[in-house]
Specification:
mainly alpha, two-stranded antiparallel ribbon, about 5% strand, disordered N terminus
Length: about 100
């Protein structure tokens, strides 16, 4: 769990000390949204734009992320926030 001092220090929050920071607004919107959690190109271009700052091939990274997270996996399973954060971190690190 992230402490409140981390939220106050910056509009971006670093997850578990990783090099990728996620916008605080996404935490709020993900918490308030329905049970489904998917990503769109607009999400990546706006709310998640900062996570691509060190990425050398942004287009390829976004395409790979969207190919996985643009729809739910099915069979009653839904993407969790942790699924998305961990996989995005791994994908983006491949393109640095």
């Amino acid at each position: 769990m992230l402490c409140s001092s981390q939220f106050a220090a910056s509009p971006f929050v670093t997850i578990l000390g990783c090099f990728v920071s996620f916008p605080l607004s996404y935490f709020v919107s993900a918490y308030l949204s329905s049970d489904t959690m998917i990503l769109t190109r607009k999400d990546l271009d706006t709310e998640w734009a900062e996570v691509f700052r060190d990425c050398k091939n942004i287009r390829a990274a976004k395409e790979e992320i969207l190919s996985i997270f643009s729809e739910e996996p099915g069979d009653g399973y839904v993407w969790s926030e942790q699924d998305i954060y961990e996989q995005m971190r791994k994908i983006i690190s491949k393109y640095e």
